[in-house]
Amino acid sequence: MNFSELKLIDKSIELISGNPETFDVIGISHSDEPKESTFVFLKNKRFLNALGCKSEFNVFLKSGLMVEKEYWDSVDKEVSEKLKSQFGWVATLKSVNEGMCILSKPFYDILFGQLNYQVDGRQLNDVEIDPSAEIAQNVFIGEGAKIGKNVKILPGCVLMPNVTIGDDSIIFPNVSLYPFTSIGERCRIHAGTSIGTDGFGYNFFDGKHQKIWHLAGVEILNDVEIGCNAMIDAGAFTPTFIGNGSKIDNAVQISHNVKIHEHVIICGTTGIAGSVEINDYCAFGAGAGVAPAAKIGKGAQVAARAVVSENAVVPPGEVMAGHPARPLKDWMRSQATLRRLSKK
Fold first, then answer.
1. What CATH number labels 128-332?
2. Is 256 a catalytic residue?
3. Which CATH code, of 3.40.190.10, 3.40.1390.10, 1.25.40.10, 3.40.50.720, is assigned to 3-112?
4. Stated pTM of the model
5. CA distances from residue 55 to 135, 219, 319 in whole angstroms, order as listed
């Protein structure tokens, strides 16, 4: 898809700088890590401060930048000139919220529209299955799937197209793996779990909730265990990610774009909202909740039923409790105060 086609989809797009016709656009990437032949959205100062923060580069001459016009008009000349020098092209659009919905749909159609969901990839000779893998009856394996050594897949599982499963992993009955789900080595995925489902992402305009189309799938590394009936959503423009050795209990919800690093423990019925980042060795008690875009520092703990607020930053090693979650000692003092007041 080229820039001219993007302008036909969203007629509010206006080119500010660069020559966008020098490369085709193959998708959308996240603003914290712009990818070649993609564009990223920039809505406000918070996203500006994080722009490229997870990339090893600071110049993205084969990437484009879509900036909300009202915000672009408010930035000073030094900032605008820097952005023009960083990206291959810069354009404005009326609304990033609207653009995310309108512009993600054609890329979703390109990525998912030609996938075959009806015919098993084994019939099409379009799968890679190691001879040592054990696959039960009543398992569907989509085209483009790759299944490693000594993998066990039990009855009722559905592997949609372009799923990858690493060596020595076991997939228990009735697990559903959506397209572009990658599972590492020695993983255990228990019965009824769904991985790679559409992220629950909508923006409200024109009188209704409009869908953001999720393009980036799920990436799970090695030695991960996921309990029964867990739900892990695909990322929008960057994969939902679970790092080595992390363990996730039954009935846990992990939303789009979540980053869970290594050796994290998440107990049953916990809910992790979109774009949360959880660093190594964190632990969550049963029924905990984390609101969107929170960052949980290395080794932090969140007590059962505690709820971490949106955009909160939990320091490394902190123990949080209550609703809204706060340091455990603070929460215990507040509870003691409430008990004293209730006796008066």
1. 2.160.10.10
2. yes
3. 3.40.1390.10
4. 0.94
5. 39, 18, 30
